[in-house]
Design goal:
Blueprint (H helix, E strand, L loop, with lengths): L3 E7 L8 H13 L1 H7 L2 E4 L3 H9 L14 H4 L2 E2 L13 E4 L1 H13 L2 H8 L10 H25 L2 E7 L1
Antiparallel strand pairs: 1-2, 1-5, 3-4, 4-5
Amino acid sequence: MSVHLHLRAVAESEIRDDHTWLAAFMSEAWDNHPDEYAAGIADSIDKVWGAVNDLYAAADVRDTDAEEPWTLPIYGGRPVPHSADADPSDPPLMLLEPPGVSQAADFLATVSFDQLWNVAGAGIIGPGWTEAQVRQEFLNCHRDLQQFYGRAASAGHAVVKAVWA
C-alpha cells in the first residue's frame, strides 16, 4: 500500500475553511498531481515524510519564541477538523497559512542538508538500504521541498496538506 503526504500551494482567498470542501479540492489536485508538480504548485512525499521531519528535527533550536521552523515543512499548520457530515474516509488535512509558508521557505533555504544528515542521517537508514541511497532520496525530498515552499512563499500562498492512503 502506498501512503503519501500531498502538499498543494493555493491562494488563501481561494480556500474554504471546510474539511469537506478542502478534501474534494485536494482529491482533484491529487488526480492532477503530475501536472501540478510540474507546474511547481504541488509536491508529495511517500511513506518517509515522518523521517524527513526527523531529519529536520536535527535543526531544533530551543531559543525561539514562535513555532520552531523545522516543524513547518512537514507537520506545520493547523488541522482542519471534519464537519459532522463529513465523509469519514476523507483524509486528514492541515492548512499552513502564508506566514508559516514563508517561515518554512526561509528555514529550508538556510538549513544545511549536509549538517542535518551528519547529525541525524545514521538514525534514518533502514535495513536493506545503503547510506548513499537513503541520503540521495532525502536530499531529493529536501530539494523538492525547498523549491516548492520557495515558490509558494514568493506567491504569498498557503499550503494545504493531505495524507492519502
